[in-house]
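Hey, sorry to bother you again with one of my protein questions. A protein chain has come my way and I'm curious about its shape. It would help a lot if you went through both lines with me. I owe you a coffee for this, so here goes:
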Amino acid sequence: MLPVVMSLVVLAIFALLLGARVVWRRGDRQRAVLMAIAALVIAGNVAIWAVPI
């Protein structure tokens, strides 16, 4: 179950980064930066989950 969840979370990271790029081009810089920060936080969580116990 965990690999399925992790793959969906990685897809969410890519979606956030792509969305941040689109929002940045439209001029809403603050929202784009917040989306990129959210993607980084989620990527950190995935990195923590990927570490073997």
Observations:
- Residues 2-26 form the longest helix (25 residues).
- DSSP finds two helices and no strands in the chain.
- The mean pLDDT is 95.
